[in-house]
Amino acid sequence: MSAIIITTTPYTRTHSHSRTRSRPPHSRAQSQIGTPVNEQTPLLLRPPSPTPSCTSSVSTYSSSSETLLRSPPLKDSISLARFCTVCAGIWSANFVFAFQSTAIPTLAPEIGSWFEHAELAAYLGSGFTLASTAVIPLYGVFMETLGRTFAMVTACAFFGVGTILCAMSNHMYTLIGARIFAGLGGGGLLTVSSVIVTDLVPLRDRGFYQGLMMTIFGSGSMLGGPLAGWLTDKYGWHWSFWVQLPIIVFCAVIVSIFLPTPPIPPTHQSLLSGLASLDWLGSFFLITSVTTLLLGFSFHTSYLEPWSAPIVWGMLLTSVISTGLFIYTETQVKRPVVPLELFKSSHIAAINTCGFFLSVGNQAFMYQIPVYFAVIVNTSTAQAGLIMSLCGGLGLATGSMVAGQYIRSGHSWKYLGPIALFPPIVGSIVAAMWDPAWTWWSYYATVLPCVLGYSTFLCVQLVALISSVDSKIMPKATALMYTTRSLGATLGVSIGGSVQLGALAGDLKKQFKGIDNGNEIISAILHSKSAIRLLPPSLRELALASYSHSLSVVWIFSAIIATITFINSFWIESSEVHKDEEDDQLRKGVGGVVEGGFGEGLGESTIEGETRE
């Protein structure tokens, strides 16, 4: 299979919204693209015959009416058995990522007690999250520079070695370090697998396969906690890590053997030259910015350090400075980690902004649900976990499948995204009115629609992004989207916790004003939820009322964030993807220049007469 080295010629935006593109004279394809579009204009344009002097003038990002280069789906060039094998391999990585995400919260108290370092148990989750979020953009660079196979195997290697070190750890600090090391791979598992699926399937089917992936992800989430608990009780916590190893090895082997080469080859064939070409300074500033931002919020919410504490504002100030240095660095280098041109499009900016805010609101909402059942309802952790597992698993799978099938049928997703945001808004408001006297089905009826809407919007976000960038920049754009999601999810937990603690402390001061030892009681409640059960009945009711109020404040905050996402979602543009149109394009040729949709002739385009086998 031959593939083409493609370069792009930037176009100029004018204040009248007209677009002027640089193009060589006498280029029939470029003349067609410049022709005004009306109802009679064909959707698919035939590209020019390949000539050494022909260049393709395209944009790397686009709204629904601009020109894109789209790779042909690899699914049509490989056997069904090979396609299914590749999907099984990459989705096993999604399964194991979801498995560990619920297994670790279950294991953390047991491991903390086993090592007699319960105060460090939270770092088992936060260390992994910090590392994985910080390195996601680097995997976008790896995919472009050294290829999908290298990026996926690298992610599996970091995650696998980190998991082995976790299983063999004999000290709490060693285990935390191993979790951070595993997080360096975890950041690439979801991102690279998403890009590989985008390479494999046509755009009209991308949402459907996202639904399948979310079904597998939901299964891993549902199994992680119960299976890890059973393995810990029967064989010890080490086996909860060992059981993840065969799955990640399976993924690495399948990708190494069966993954087809994408139409646009990596820019470097040598590992050393590829690594040397990376923007290491920009990567350093990016990782520093993300890590210090998350640490600053973590010190405030997890360790109750005030905003005025040097460790808190120092971390946040470092994050701001690092962000500024990162942006400056990216404007100076030829191969930036995050192409700043992506932010020139209000459409793509809205996609990433919506993903960030929705993740903030969703995590702030979901993270406080177990707290409500543990403190206010005084039920078991298992019952609270059942609501989270069932609603989370079913909601993620169903929402993505419905959205994927809707888009697959050729419908526009312009209003599907805003509609999907209504359940999170309404559900958060309803949760703020929860009462222990409510029946259990009412809790399910509140949480499940929220997860359905969240999952539906994530599917819309992914397809909207892929439809707006060409294949050359798609890996970095996808990595940026996953970075904003992960950053939003992590900050959502921290910000939600900060809002809850602030509301709780303020209300407790009002409730316990004038009571003997009131400050000591407030401090005990803020540091340990179990302290409420040790209070006399009269004071216990006051404390529970304050706690209930603080949770309501968090869920109102979630509703506000979801509303901001809803408003911002109207800047996400849309197009319809019709099966018959795309099939006609694929019969004529493979990939190519597209005017707001799928195109043809990518395999026939040449840039400076250079074609790579």
From TrEMBL:
The keyword Transport applies. Residues 29-40 have a biased composition (Polar residues). Keywords: Membrane, Transmembrane, Transmembrane helix, Transport. The keyword Cell cycle does not apply. GO terms for molecular function: basic amino acid transmembrane transporter activity. Residues 591-602 have a biased composition (Gly residues). Residues 14-26 have a biased composition (Basic residues). Its main location: membrane. The chain crosses the membrane at residues 80-100, 120-142, 149-170, 176-197, 209-231, 237-259, 280-299, 311-328, 349-369, 381-403, 415-434, 440-466, 487-506, 552-572. Residues 1-60, 591-613 are annotated as: Disordered. It is found in: Endomembrane system. One of its GO terms (cellular component) is endomembrane system. This is Multidrug resistance protein fnx1. It comes from Kwoniella mangroviensis CBS 10435.
